[in-house]
Amino acid sequence: MSYTKVKDISVLKECKELKILYLDHTKVKDVSVLKGCKDLKVLDLSDTRIKDISALKGCKKLEWLNLISTEVEDISALRRRKELKELYLSSTEIKDISALKGCKELKGLDLYNTKVKAILALKECKNLKVLNLSHTKVKDISALKECKELEMLSLRGTRIKEDDPTVKLLRERGVRVYFK
């Protein structure tokens, strides 16, 4: 359904075994019908008018979620999502990522151009490999010391400096840290 003029997805209400759904670049505003899609693993809602993702609370098997350039402010529906591996939140209104605290399988997280200030929740994301914090308001990245699997960190346009002790530690571990 990507790149279509579709607005209403109520027809999906009966698709209980739906596993993959691309609704990116559509006019969809409401995803409440996805509440019953318990087997949904991949969902792309990027560049839509979505504000509320509370319906995704029941999508426990969700592994990949793209919310880039949406109006989403609250990701509490993703709390303790054990299966979630990749999450794209860039250019959203997200401020609080505490819901990600229990997302132990999270490997990729894109927070580019969000209003996020604190990343303490990522301390428990031990499998995190790629993290984009570019153009966020994050000042403290010490929580990333616990992310032993981290391979790449983007800090472009942040207040973090190259001489930050955590940056030095991460680089010593072989993490690619980008400022430019």
What would your notes on this structure say?
The protein has one helix at 165-172, and strands at 20-22, 42-44, 64-66, 86-88, 108-110, 130-132, 152-154, 176-178. It is mainly β and 180 residues long. It has 2 domains: 1-72, Ribonuclease Inhibitor (Leucine-rich repeat, LRR (right-handed beta-alpha superhelix)); 91-180, Ribonuclease Inhibitor (Leucine-rich repeat, LRR (right-handed beta-alpha superhelix)). The chain has an 8-stranded parallel β-sheet with strand order 1-2-3-4-5-6-7-8, covered by helices on one side. It is elongated.
N-end to C-end Cα span: 36 Å
Low-confidence runs (pLDDT<50, min 5 residues)? none
Architecture of the largest domain, CATH level 2? Alpha-Beta Horseshoe
Order of strands across the widest beta sheet? 1-2-3-4-5-6-7-8
Main pleated sheet? 8 strands, parallel
Calculate the mean pLDDT score and round it.
Answer: 95
Radius of gyration: 17 Å
* CATH T-level fold name of the largest domain: Leucine-rich repeat, LRR (right-handed beta-alpha superhelix)
Derived structural class = mainly beta
CATH homologous superfamily name of the largest domain? Ribonuclease Inhibitor
CATH C-level of the largest domain: Alpha Beta
Q: What is the global morphology?
A: elongated
| Secondary-structure element string | EEEEEEEHE
List how many beta strands DSSP finds.
8
What percent of residues are in strands?
Answer: 5-15%
How many H/I helical runs?
1
State the helical fraction. Answer: under 10%
Keywords:
180 residues, mainly beta, Leucine-rich repeat, LRR (right-handed beta-alpha superhelix), 2 domains, eight-stranded parallel sheet
